[in-house]
Amino acid sequence: MSRPFRRYSAGARLYDVLSGERWVYRAGRVAGIELMGLRSGDVVLDLGCGTGLNFPLVRAAVGRTGHIVGVDRSADMLAVAWGRVRREGWSNVTLVEADAADLDAGDVRARVAAATGSAGGVDAVLSTYALSVMRDGATEAWARAVDLVRPDGVLAVVDMQPPTGRWRIFSPLARLACAVGGADIRARPWRLVARDADPGSVREVTVRGGHIVTAVGRLPGEDASATGS
Ligand SMILES: C[S@@+](CC[C@H](N)C(=O)[O-])C[C@H]1O[C@@H](n2cnc3c(N)ncnc32)[C@H](O)[C@@H]1O
Q1: In order of start, what are the domains of the chain with their CATH numbers?
Q2: Is the N or C terminus of the chain more exposed, i.e. has fewer CB atoms within 10 Å?
Q3: pLDDT tens for residues 140-162?
Q4: Atom of ligand 1 nearest to the CA of 5
C-alpha cells in the first residue's frame, strides 16, 4: 500500500478540518465548478472524490435530476462522503471504491444506467486535488474517466502548483501542504484538459496567489469525432 493511500485512510475523518479547505482550497473548487457551467440533470464523475467536498456545489448545479458518481480508492474517505450524502438526504449519488487507474468503465456505465435510467454516459468529469496525489497512475486514471464522457462533455481539473508572483513567499508553506497530502506540486495535471479538450473551449483560472489552477474545457462534439477533426 502506497503512503498517500494510508494517509487518506487514517486521516479521512480529519480531512475536512485539516486540509486547509476553508482558507485555501474551497476557492479552487468553487472557481472550477462555476467554470464548468453544469446544467440541471447532468451526470458528473468526481475522480478521487475523497470526502465529497465537491458534492454540495455539484449537487446545487445539477439538481435532484442530475447524478454524481464519486470514485475513490480509500474506503475511509468514501465512508465520510457517504455520511455527507446521508445527512443531506441525497438519493442521486453513486460512490465507487476503486483505484482510478483501474477504473472499469463498463461497471461505471452500468451503475449510472441503473441509477438514472439512461445509457450510462457521463456529461462531465471533475478532479480536484486528486490527480497530483495519484502520481504515476494519474494519466491512466484521467484517460479512463474521459472515456466515459460524451462528445462535447465537460473536462475539469483543479490542482496545485507553487504560488506565483509576489505570493511566492508562501511557496514553502504550499510545498509543505502538498508534501503532507502526498501531492506532487510539480505534476500540473490540468495540462490533461488542454491535451484532450477542444482547444477553443479551454479556460484556465488561478486563485490563491496562483497556488490553485483550474482548467475547464469541452471534448470535441459528435461532428468533430465523425470527421476525425
Ligand atoms: C487530496 S485528496 C482530494 C479529495 C477531493 N477530491 C477534494 O477535493 O477534497 C486526494 C484523494 O485522491 C484519492 N486517491 C489517491 N490515489 C487514488 C487512486 N489511484 N484512485 C482513486 N482515488 C485515489 C485519495 O484517496 C484521496 O481521497
Answers
A1: 3-227 (3.40.50.150)
A2: N
A3: 999 999 999 999 999 999 999 99
A4: 25
Tell me the pairing of strands 212-218 and 122-128.
unpaired
Residue 1 pLDDT class (50, 70, 90 cuts):
very low
Crossing angle of helices 26-36/55-62, nearest 10°? 20
11 lines ligand 1 (CB under 6 A): no
Q: Is the pTM of this model over 0.85?
A: yes
Distance, CA 198 to ligand 1 centroid (Å)? 26
3-class SS of residue 46: strand
As a whole number of angstroms, the distance between CA 42 and CA 36 comes to 11
- What sign results for the dihedral spanned by CA atoms 89, 74, 51, 190? negative
What nine digits make up the cell of 19?
Answer: 486540509
Quote the ligand 1 centre to 127 CA distance (angstroms). Answer: 9
- CA angle 49/25/202 to nearest 5° reads 75
> In degrees, to the nearest 5, what angle opens at C-alpha 29 toward C-alphas 23 and 30?
85
Contact 93, 24 (CB under 8 A): no
